[in-house]
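Box S1 | Example of a co-folding query
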Amino acid sequence: MEAKFYKKTVYLVGNANVGKSVIFSALTKKYVTISNYPGTTVEVTRGELSGDSIEIIDTPGIASLTPLSEDEQVTRDILLEHETIRQQKPEVILVIDAKNLRRGLVIASQLSFCKIPFFIVLNMMDEAAAEGVQINIKELKKRLGTEIVEAIAIQKEGISKIIELIKKPFSASKFIPDFLPDIELCLKKLSAKINSLIAISIACLDKSAAAFLDKEELIFAEKEIAKHNVSLYQFQNAWHRSVIDLLEDIYQKISVSKVSWLTKLGHLSVKPVAGIFILITVLLSVYKFVGYFGAIIFVDFLENTVFNGYINPFFTKIFDFLPLPEIFIEAFVGKYGILTMGLTYAIAIILPIVTTFFLAFSFLEDSGYFPRMGSFLNNSFRKMGLNGKAVLPMVLGLGCDTMATMTTRILNSRKERIIATLLLALGIPCSAQLGVIFSLGSKLPAGYMAAWGLIVTAVLMFVGYLSSKVIKGKVSLFFMELPPLRVPQFSNLLKKTYMRSKWYLKEAAPLFILGSFILFLMDKFKILEILNKALRPITVYGLNLPEESAYSFILGFLRRDFGAAGFLKLHADGLMTNAQTLTALVVITLFIPCIANFLMIIKERGPITAFAMFFFIVPFAFFIGVLLSKALLILNL
Ligand SMILES: Nc1nc2c(ncn2[C@@H]2O[C@H](COP(=O)(O)OP(=O)(O)OP(=O)(O)O)[C@@H](O)[C@H]2O)c(=O)[nH]1
Ligand SMILES: [Mg+2]
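Box S1 (continued) | Returned holo structure for magnesium ion
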């Protein structure tokens, strides 16, 4: 692709969950995911200001420019890159949540220190007003010497002013951060010799910044920092301290008498007893919603009415009528036909469930409930070498494990990132697989689904516990700003559900077609029969499943949901009892992740870790399956 020439590039920077991506979308008319939890954006997204050749870049949210996690590092690095490559300071739009002015000003202080030109978007003015926040904008503008735009991004308020400012040159702020004398001296000396963005990170002992320095510079920096009598904590805290005076002069919060029911619900959702009650209600509601509307109503309509009623008979007739060789007809409309199996699975069975699930999932995502689950489950997660922040990638895994693996970047330590990646790959079923499982679940007695959930959770906790002992490193403290609970915007829900369903079809349908074609060939050339026999020690003797189950596991290597769909069929054909179905579901849930996820693990964690996970997960999944099937035999189920 030819690189496009832009007049200039501006960067949307700010704390997590302040509305950067909403503004990015409004400026560029480009779709990006917007959700109500910190860490939605973990990669930079590039776009073009609609109607002008100015490049706009959306960045992951940060607490400060001295990064603590990989996603924060992405933001610092892109600003640094701009400066080193173009020999020019980057131009930044600093988006601040008006309710959390202090956190935003910390970044303003750092940008000022680094002489990076910026202006401020004071977003979420609607919520700030409702909470009684009052900001003296005139004074703030005077003290910082930068432009300030008041905005309510979701209502497009303030966007035209932002566009106007983007087109003008940005100017650096004249704010001088107030430091303790030792800190001031040290930072000054450091930034006289090395880039100030690196200097402030190095002072906070950020190792990733060292990569930007040569040996000599690094030695200089280390010596300089050691010379001054300043602790790491003092360095980190210096930025918060630097804005205290400013904040005192311009910010106040008056008490509001009316507390909304959402705020009350938000408080309740993190309380021990009420929290559990709310969590169970949420889980059950999603299960019922998807299980009923997706798995029963929509699937029934698409599978029986549309596909089996019209599409498949129609094509079968056409193929019968055409003078084509038998083998060709079978490849399309036979037992393992591309149409009768591949597309029917992908579109009639999985798509409707996935779509309903995405709708429910987006609702929860935008409501702001997920981070509350994190704070609520923090203690249980610590036993697995993780903290409550890891609830986010885990829950997102229920949407798509591949995306979720990328979201592990928001975790602070390597240990946490590895454990979260492993658990995602091992036992978090993605939306598509969950869809099939829900569908099968609606055909099994209730206890079986509960047993499936309990077994998978127990295995995850057990493996998490073991890995927390085996993998070296520290677990960081849990700290996450809880966003307010909100009533989701309906338009965003529809947009997200549509984009995700489209993406699912694009990702899954080709693999389903490929899978059914491979099966067709294997069946035709009797390889399937041989494989079914060859795998008997595992499938029949080990797992106590019919030998035909081998083909589901083969499909499972392509995608776990495809494998699960194979079991759905075996169960529907009466080849498996309920207990056998439970075993099959547990094994396919714990089974290896799909190819896309595997590639993502290689990208994020490296090939050695990825293959180590693969060779652990496959035998382990079967091992748990064998244990379970024996237990079920003993229980006489
Ligand atoms: N009430 C209100 N909500 C807003 C406003 N702007 C954004 N939101 C909501 O705030 C949430 C976060 O928006 P995003 O654009 O995803 O935030 P972000 O800064 O990109 O977040 P990260 O990518 O996680 O750093 C979403 O639920 C938005 O709908 C606003 O002006 N008022
Ligand atoms: Mg974002």
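The beta strands are 8-14, 45-48, 54-58, 91-97, 118-123, 133-135, 148-150, 251-253. Residues 272-321 form the longest helix (50 residues).
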